[in-house]
Amino acid sequence: MTTLLRAIALTVTLAVSAAPLLAQEQPKQQEVFTPIDQLPPQEQLPAAPLLVGAYAFVLLTLFAYLITVSRRLTAIQQEVNRLETDVKRAGKS
Amino acid sequence: MPKWFLPATLLCGLMFAISPFVIANAPFESTMGLVQKVFYYHMPSAWMFLTASMVCGIASLRFLATGNARYDRTAWAAAEMTVLFGLVTLVTGPLWARKAWGTWWIWDARITSSLVGWMIAWAYLILRRYGGPGSEKLSAGLALFGMANVPFIYISVTYWRTIHPATTVVPKLPFSMGFPLWFCVAAFLLLMVLLHKLRVRVAEQQARLDEIYLSLDEQH
Predict the structure, then answer these.
(1) A77 touches chain B (CB under 8 A)
(2) I need a labelling partner for A12 at 20 to 30 A (CA). Which of A29, B42, B131, B142 fits?
(3) Side-chain-side CA neighbours of residue B9 (13 Å)
(4) How far is CA B99 from CA B23, B112, B163, B173, B216, in A?
(5) Which residues of chain B have pLDDT under 50?
(6) Residue B12's pLDDT is what?
């Protein structure tokens, strides 16, 4: 039991004493604004995938909606035509 | 469909086919570079989003005043346009912002009010779809809130602190950047008019179908 308590005390002491050292190792907080074109190359994002992604998304979304509405319209018009024909037939007979 | 619909559709398709070349010929913006070209689709879609929201609100107001189902169909179609162009705006914006601002999203006044406007349009459509009888009047009331939100979206960059560009940017654009922008605005406007017309036609045919079913029920 005493050994266990000693081990816990040692761990806590080491953790507490190491905390300031770890804090010192953290990078300094940035104080000034860095323009995007002055960032180091490893931090710069490529623009082309974002641009192509944006244009592809717009065109695909608009086209998908156009197809959806066209299909809805065709289905409803076919049903209207079918029912109107049935009503006419029923009226004649 | 009206006679002008097919030629207008062909013209719209041609404009969208040409637009990448027109945009590619526009000069690069000095600070943002290539990614700034998202602007030529982002801004027209944002304008169509606001226009559709206004059309939805005005048509809903007229529907509430007159009870004419034609205005209701116009409002319903415009609500779908609001959701469609709002989605395009809210997706292309973050793709541009990721490179230009270093973040996908910020909760500034313009982006937040745009998101609210888009969610109001969604609420309109959900209410129409699942609200049952009488939902058309409740939806029309909701559309008025959507319309009231539009001026807030527009002036938000003037009255609240934001990193969004001010509304004064567009009139100051040089011709080399202004022409592609207005070309895309015309293409998006034509597309919205055509899609709206098509969607209204769906609603008209649906109303016709309901009438036929009602008359058949009365006969039996």
Answers:
(1) yes
(2) A29
(3) 14
(4) 19, 20, 14, 21, 60
(5) none
(6) 96
pLDDT at B55: 97
Token pair for A5: 């308590």
pLDDT at A37: 63
Read off the amino acid at residue B198: L
Q: Where are the alpha helices (DSSP H) in A1-93?
A: 2-25, 47-92
Backbone angles phi, psi at B168, to 5 degrees: -80, -5
Q: What is the pLDDT of residue A45?
A: 72
CB contact under 8 A, B219 and A90: yes
Dihedrals phi, psi of B33, to nearest 5 degrees: 70, -140
The answer to whether B100 touches B42, Cβ cutoff 8 Å, is: no
- Residues facing A77 on adjacent strands: none
* Minimum-distance CB partner of B198 among A37, A45, A69: A69
Q: Rounded to whole angstroms, how far apart are CA atoms B124 and B118?
A: 10
DSSP summary character for residue B102: S
Handedness of CA A44, A47, A49, A51 (dihedral sign): positive
Within an 8 Å CB–CB cutoff, is residue A90 touching chain B?
yes
Residue-wise pLDDT for A1-58, tens only, equals 567 777 777 777 776 666 665 555 555 555 666 666 666 665 667 788 899 999 999 9
| B91 close to A (CB below 8 A) | yes
B55 at the A interface (CB within 8 A)? Answer: no
pLDDT in tens, B48-105: 999 999 999 999 999 999 999 999 999 999 999 999 999 999 999 999 998 888 889 9
Element (H or E) spanning B87, and its range? helix B69-100
How far is CA B47 from its chain centroid?
A: 7
